[in-house]
Amino acid sequence: MNEENELFPKLNLPPTRLSMKCCADGVMRVYDPLRRKYVALTPEEWVRQHFVAHMVGALGFPETLLANEVAITLNGTSRRCDTVVYSRQGLKPLAIVEYKAPHVVITQRVFDQISRYNMVLRVPWLFVSNGLGHYCCRVDYDAGRCVFLKELPCYGEMEGSSNF
Question: Was domain 20-161 assigned CATH 3.90.1570.30?
Fold first, then answer.
């Protein structure tokens, strides 16, 4: 699908070829290579598929070290991280990625949400994207702060600067 409309607008990401199909129930689905199945094509999923393709294609993230919809338990409640990036050494969580639909403004609330997820995983990297704006911060646990980067890092930079 290369056509864009208000639900699936042009993103601030390189275009990518997506395998899509309209199922018998009338729902448009997109193939998610990480989950190895077709999933409902929502505006947030549109962002996820483009962002993951960018991570793999341009930033050198190994597809085998990415997982979508990772279940976690937070304060006794089941939640799902949109994407988790793992390290090569020991397959420890390295980053969490939170996606929003393009029409959703990235606010402090979104960062609060990913920070709550990080209370469980304690990763050194956090990404947030609505497909139009992308943010990445490095969590400095020693100083108790987050440092925002001007550009998205490549996988090698992230793994090389993390203490495992």
Answer: yes
